[in-house]
Amino acid sequence: MDTVVKSLEAYSSSTSSNWRKEAEERQANKEWLRYSQMIAMKMLDRMEELGLTQKKLAERMGCSQQYVSKVLRGKENLSLETLCKIENALDLHIVQEPEMVV
Question: How far apart are CA 51 and CA 41, in angstroms?
């Protein structure tokens, strides 16, 4: 038994795992992450329809391809400004305009 434990210890990492911290963050942020993932899926569908690459979308949005990649992973907390840029670049409605009350 001691040899098994020693073998396992030899392969164990000296740094602690971030798994628990990441799981807690996902749980705390699951509401906006769900929306972020939904937006990413809409973007990917529309990019496919238009034949756009991440690079071309980044050019249309005025940002880097790396940022577009982060958004498309569905884990980015998007600002209203970014949402507007996405909508304009893809001719896509993400945010529903509120009805005007007269």
Answer: 15
